[in-house]
Write a structure and sequence with these properties.
- This protein starts with 8 loop residues before the first strand and ends with a strand.
- It has no helices and 8 strands.
- It has strands spanning 9-14, 38-43, 48-49, 52-53, 63-66, 72-76, 79-85, 89-93.
- A 6-stranded antiparallel β-sheet has the order 6-7-1-2-5-8, with no helix packed on it. A two-stranded antiparallel ribbon has the order 3-4.
- A hairpin with a 2-residue loop joins strand 3 (48-49) and strand 4 (52-53).
- The chain has one domain: 10 Kd Chaperonin, Protein Cpn10, Chain O, CATH 2.30.33.
- The protein is mainly β and 94 residues long.
Length: 94
């Protein structure tokens, strides 16, 4: 099953743990930290303002930070997602 967000909503998935440091050292899964950012899985078409659709500021594949209490967590086919409004995204990484 596939999630298709409406309006200015964005579907996010928690980023995978980094098992390798920037210098190339391999970490055990216990030593690896949970990342505090998400990856954009799907983005809606944007809001209508004054009869014009505003384009979204994020795209699929972007890595983003969101507010700690933002959005709604959903579980679908055994995977966890976070659905947020675009304005709840604090920053795009990179």
């Amino acid at each position: 099953m596939k999630l298709r967000p409406l309006s200015d909503r964005v579907v996010l998935k928690k980023a995978e743990k980094e098992l390798k440091t920037k210098s190339g050292l391999i970490l055990s899964s216990a030593a690896a930290e949970d990342p505090s950012y998400y990856e954009v899985v799907a983005a809606g078409p944007g809001l209508f303002v004054d009869g014009q659709r505003n384009p979204m500021g994020v795209q699929v594949g972007d890595k983003v930070f969101v507010d700690k209490y933002a959005g709604n967590a959903v579980k679908l086919d055994g995977e966890e997602f976070l659905i947020v409004h675009e304005h709840e995204i604090l920053a795009v990484i990179g």
